[in-house]
């Protein structure tokens, strides 16, 4: 089993994704969607839970690997005593069915290569029946059917509950494997030409990456982050999942293991802003349209997250047969936080739709009527305690960030009416709400003794989400309370040069989030710190922090949710959209000015 989360690279087809280890093993793949059951779950268990490894006989980890420039096509190479071999992995954008294409190519010498495929449906719990048909190996169990073929054909055999192949490639020779899923009650879909799929994928990805408008420092990292966000997009609906995985631990051996294969409203404004500013209006509009469909209905029923097509029922379940990554149990599917009240999401939705309107995205019927409905709900509900941005499980509180985002909702409603008075709405009432929320936050959520806003009313704890106060416009960056908050958060929540979200255990011993203490530095929050330092005039410090954060990307430029600066390892689900959104937005914030500013 691969020891570190960052040992993995991502391939995908914009409907699901796979993780490929340095040893050439695909250890995670859910079919046919991001949130479907995994047919390869070695990531959270061992080889018996499903994987597919292609590597030289007797070899361990690869010599080197890299994505082809500006693509999601992965090349992995091994240098052996007999020669060098390359495995190219990709998932072509699908027509009807998802395919995994793995092309083995001899680079030099003559190398013997082994393929070991163990399919285990439903997160490693169901062993399929495997047979031969028309030159394929066909695995079937319940609703799932997977077909494996090689071009040119190689000998395969069954052994140890797996399908094996062994063959030799000389310089210039290629063998392509194609793994195709389809519902077991349907006929096999048309065959994919693996070599044409490779050529098309490279061309399509490079054309897409070429649309990026950012030309500042670390452009390669920005493009890689945008490609990762594209890969985490569910193309049929435009929804973007928070990560491709479930239950990768925030603390190895701990219980902070959650399912992130869903779409969070908290990501909406930051995602939309990154896509629009970087030049991806089509993707931004698709995300906006997903948002409108997902949140339609009674404002009181607004959820913090939805499925990739807008599904609402995401019940949390534990999978006891999986021991978890690095023994981190339980492994969970679904997410119980879906039932929480998080008032900040109303602000994030209002902010997103305001940004979409101001950026010239096409109007949608009933969008303003829905926004008015959200505001009417907030008028009566905003004083309630909630679980907050971080989905705490230790009880509701009057979280300051949540109240700030209520202010954002009222502010965006006011600004929209001021610019579009033909829309209609309670302008005076929303102005009063905006003023009332700001007054209460500044009175109850601010510690004058320490000159900092706090995590919740009456507390002394801090919260990295408060770094967003100047970004959303609640107070200007040069306000002494903003500067004091930035300094206090950096001092109190700093962790190895980066930033934690909050203290997982209060000084008085109370448990803020209802879980055992301990987690790594939260990468999105660390990017927010870089932004806040920049906005408060400390640009050199901001850029130094940004450089260190970019340097945390693994060898193929991917970031997890968190980072442990003590052990130097990634933590949490992976790759994490929130982290890559943070990287893109920070680059645009820090280096989006004129050429002099970029070089400073």
List the SSEs and their pairings.
Elements lengths: L8 E4 L4 E4 L4 E6 L7 E3 L10 E6 L7 E4 L6 E7 L2 E8 L8 E20 L2 H4 L4 E5 L2 E6 L2 E8 L4 E4 L2 E9 L3 E10 L10 H16 L9 H13 L1 E2 L4 E2 L22 E2 L3 H11 L2 H15 L9 E2 L10 E2 L13 E2 L10 H15 L8 H15 L18 H20 L7 H18 L1 E2 L4 E2 L15 H4 L7 H14 E2 L2 E2 L21 E2 H13 L3 H12 L11 E3 L4 E3 L5 H15 L3 H5 L1
Antiparallel strand pairs: 1-2, 2-3, 3-4, 3-5, 5-9, 6-7, 7-8, 8-9, 9-14, 9-15, 10-11, 11-12, 12-15, 13-14, 16-17, 18-19, 20-21, 22-23, 24-25, 26-27, 27-28
Helix pairs in contact: 3-14, 4-5, 4-6, 4-14, 5-6, 6-8, 7-8, 8-9, 12-13, 12-14, 13-14
Task: Describe this entry's structure for a reader.
The protein is an alpha+beta fold and 600 residues long. 32% of the residues lie in helices and 22% in strands. The protein is built from 15 helices and 28 strands. The strands form seven sheets. It has a 15-stranded antiparallel β-sheet that branches. The longest helix has 20 residues, at 400-419. It is globular.
- CA gyration radius, whole angstroms: 25 Å
Total helical elements? 15
Secondary structure category: alpha+beta
Overall geometry: globular
Oligomer: single chain
Helix proportion range: 25-40%
Query: Largest sheet, described in full?
Result: 15 strands, antiparallel
Number of E-state strands: 28
Which strand-content bin applies to the residues? Answer: 15-25%
How far is it from the N-terminal to the C-terminal residue, by CA?
Answer: 44 Å
Could you tell me the mean pLDDT? 94
Low-confidence blocks of residues: 594-600
């Amino acid at each position: 089993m691969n020891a570190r989360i960052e040992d993995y690279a991502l391939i995908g087809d914009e409907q699901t994704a796979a993780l490929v280890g340095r040893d050439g093993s695909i250890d995670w793949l859910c079919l046919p969607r991001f949130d479907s059951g995994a047919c390869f779950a070695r990531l959270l268990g061992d080889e018996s839970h499903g994987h597919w490894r292609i590597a030289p006989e007797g070899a361990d980890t690869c010599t080197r690997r890299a994505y082809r420039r500006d693509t999601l096509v992965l090349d992995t190479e091994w240098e052996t005593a007999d020669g060098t071999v390359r495995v190219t992995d990709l998932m072509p954008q699908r027509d009807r069915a998802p395919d995994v294409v793995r092309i083995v190519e001899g680079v030099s010498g003559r190398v013997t290569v082994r393929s070991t495929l163990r399919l285990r449906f439903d997160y490693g719990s169901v062993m399929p029946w495997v047979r031969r048909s028309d030159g394929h190996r066909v695995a079937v169990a319940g609703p799932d059917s997977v077909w494996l073929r090689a071009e040119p054909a190689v000998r395969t055999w069954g052994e140890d509950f797996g399908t094996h192949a062994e063959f030799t490639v000389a310089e210039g020779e290629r063998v392509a494997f194609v793994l195709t899923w389809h519902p077991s009650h349907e006929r096999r879909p048309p065959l994919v030409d693996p070599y044409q799929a490779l050529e098309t994928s490279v061309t399509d990805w490079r054309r897409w990456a070429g649309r990026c408008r950012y030309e500042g420092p670390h452009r390669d990292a920005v493009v890689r982050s945008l490609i990762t966000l594209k890969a985490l997009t569910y193309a049929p609906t435009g929804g973007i999942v928070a990560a491709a995985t479930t239950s990768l631990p925030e603390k190895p051996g701990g219980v902070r293991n959650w399912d992130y294969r869903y779409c969070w409203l908290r990501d909406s404004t930051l995602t939309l802003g990154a896509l629009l500013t970087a030049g991806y209006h089509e993707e931004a509009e698709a995300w906006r349209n997903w948002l409108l469909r997902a949140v339609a209905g009674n404002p009181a029923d607004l959820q913090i997250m939805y499925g990739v097509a807008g599904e609402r029922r995401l019940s949390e379940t534990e999978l006891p047969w999986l021991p978890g990554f690095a023994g981190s149990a339980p492994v969970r599917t679904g997410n119980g936080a879906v039932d929480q009240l998080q008032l900040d999401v109303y602000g994030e939705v209002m902010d997103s739709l305001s940004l979409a309107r101001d950026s010239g995205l096409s109007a949608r019927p009933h969008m303003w009527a829905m926004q008015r409905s959200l505001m009417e709900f907030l008028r009566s509900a905003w004083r309630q305690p909630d679980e907050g941005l971080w989905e705490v499980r230790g009880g509701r509180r009057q979280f300051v960030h949540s109240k700030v985002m209520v202010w954002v909702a009222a502010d965006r409603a006011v600004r929209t009416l001021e610019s579009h008075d033909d829309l209609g709405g309670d302008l005076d009432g929303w102005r009063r709400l905006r003023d009332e929320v700001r007054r209460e936050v500044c009175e109850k959520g601010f510690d004058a003794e320490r000159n900092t806003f706090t995590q919740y009313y009456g507390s002394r704890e801090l919260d990295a989400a408060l770094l967003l106060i100047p970004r959303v416009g609640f107070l200007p960056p040069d306000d002494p309370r903003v500067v004091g908050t930035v300094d206090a958060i950096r001092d109190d929540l700093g962790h190895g040069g980066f930033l934690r979200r909050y203290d997982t255990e209060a000084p008085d011993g109370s448990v803020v989030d209802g879980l055992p203490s301990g987690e790594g530095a939260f990468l999105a929050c660390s990017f927010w710190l870089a932004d806040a330092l920049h906005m408060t005039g400390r640009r050199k410090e901001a850029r130094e922090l940004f450089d260190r954060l970019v340097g945390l990307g693994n060898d193929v430029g991917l970031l997890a949710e968190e980072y442990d600066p003590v052990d130097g390892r990634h933590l949490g689900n992976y790759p994490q959209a929130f982290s890559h959104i943070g990287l893109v937005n920070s680059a645009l914030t820090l280096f989006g000015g004129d050429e002099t500013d970029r070089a400073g």
